[in-house]
Design goal:
Strand content: 15-25%
Number of strands: 11
Strand order of the largest sheet: 2-3-1-5-6-4
Distance between the termini: 46 Å
Order of helices and strands: HHHHHEHHEEHEHHEEHEEEHEEH
Number of helices: 13
Number of domains: 3
Radius of gyration: 23 Å
Largest sheet: 6 strands, antiparallel
Structural class: alpha+beta
Length: 380
């Protein structure tokens, strides 16, 4: 009987995953719900001498209810399973984590009820992240990254000319209000609340707070893993048609993606009238960002070079950066194409990867990004 019900669950899961990939979300939810009910039935027939089988089925049942967006059912099954002393520790840990996510979804929904879709919450999870606690450098880095991202989105939607240097216009800064939210187990969270501009005449094109929040989630959905909400299956080029703004926004996101160790995931969440929207960035999102950035070609000739080191100095007005090497020496790179100070600034004194060309004995910089592999090793 265990195998019979579990086979039904596997078939339903396969159909659900296919429907999800093809954008048929309602159908996918129905298949996930069927899989969950089948796993619950299978649990009734697990022999006491097979605790691992029980654990696998238990996690699958709660997870499938969650994917079906039947969170009350998932919570009920989880609370029934957790008191069982025969439940393996791996299953207990995973079910508790799912339960925390369910409670977070509910809390976000209640907290966002009064914000009318104007708030985006960001959640960090990882090896060094606990309930409301995380290393200061990690938090400052991601917090500033989200703030810079928010300002750029407002400038793009507001019709501002692309900014390479200096702070965002005051009118833009007044629209974005960063804050820290209530901690939950295993996460650190903060977010941005978008307000109506006080001086509409200072913003070239009318922009509403809800549009800003929607755009941030749509950008995330084009690159990350959608865990809640209905999004149109759009490429990042369709979400941000302007190539110049797409370039800077992608590079800001690249600076704050999960490294896989210190930070294992970065979540973006927003409550809408249709329900909760949640998109998660895992470390694999780097490949999608690189693919999108690779479409941008800079003119120039020379031998292609890639170098790893530490960003030790930068003078964007004089068009150079210095990369430190292990011997204490510095290698100067000449800048021939504009860099954004809110992209380069946070990389100062951090391990980086630089790419460019070597021409007439000079290193010409084309791109610079954080080297998360070195940072992770240094923290391991």
């Amino acid at each position: 009987m265990v195998n019979q019900h579990h086979r039904l669950a596997e078939e339903a899961l396969e159909s659900a995953d296919l429907a999800m990939r093809e954008g048929r979300r309602d159908e996918a939810r129905r298949h996930y719900a069927l899989a969950a009910r089948s796993e619950v039935e299978a649990l009734k027939y697990v022999a006491p001498e097979n605790p691992r089988t029980k654990g696998i089925l238990a996690v699958s049942a709660v997870s499938c209810y969650y994917k079906a967006e039947l969170e009350r059912e998932a919570e009920l099954v989880a609370c029934q399973l957790l008191p069982d002393p025969t439940l393996p520790e791996f299953a207990r840990s995973q079910i508790e984590e799912l339960l925390q996510v369910i409670w977070e979804n509910r809390r976000i929904g209640k907290a966002a009820a009064d914000t009318e879709g104007k708030m985006v919450e960001v959640v960090l999870r990882g090896k060094e992240v606990r309930q409301g606690l995380a290393p200061v450098d990690l938090i400052i880095d991601r917090f500033q990254g989200v703030q810079s991202l928010s300002l750029r989105i407002v400038e793009w939607l507001g019709g501002f000319a692309l900014r390479f240097r200096g702070p965002a216009p005051k009118a833009v800064q007044m629209v974005c209000k960063p804050y820290v939210t209530q901690p939950m187990a295993g996460s650190y969270r903060f977010g941005v609340y978008f307000e109506e501009p006080l001086q509409l005449e200072l913003i070239p094109r009318s922009v509403k707070p809800r549009d800003i929040a929607d755009s941030m989630l749509n950008i995330a959905a084009a690159l990350g893993t959608v865990e809640r909400g209905d999004f149109r299956n759009a490429a990042i080029e369709d979400v941000i048609p302007r190539q110049d703004y797409r370039d800077v926004i992608l590079k800001l996101l690249r600076n704050m993606i999960p490294d896989g160790r210190r930070v294992t995931s970065v979540e973006f969440a927003k409550m809408t009238t249709a329900g909760l929207q949640r998109v998660v960035f895992y470390s694999g999102v780097m490949d999608r960002i690189k693919h999108s950035l690779s479409a941008v070609h800079y003119p120039g000739t020379g031998e292609s070079v890639e170098f790893r080191g530490v960003l030790r100095g930068a003078h964007l007005d004089l068009l150079w950066i210095d990369i430190g090497v292990g011997t204490g020496d510095r290698l100067r790179w000449k800048i021939e194409h504009e860099l954004y100070d809110d992209v380069v600034g946070p990389l100062m004194n951090r391990p980086v990867i630089v790419r460019g060309v070597k021409r007439d004995g000079e290193h010409i910089l084309l791109d610079i990004e954080p080297d998360f592999s070195v940072e992770a090793e240094g923290q391991g």
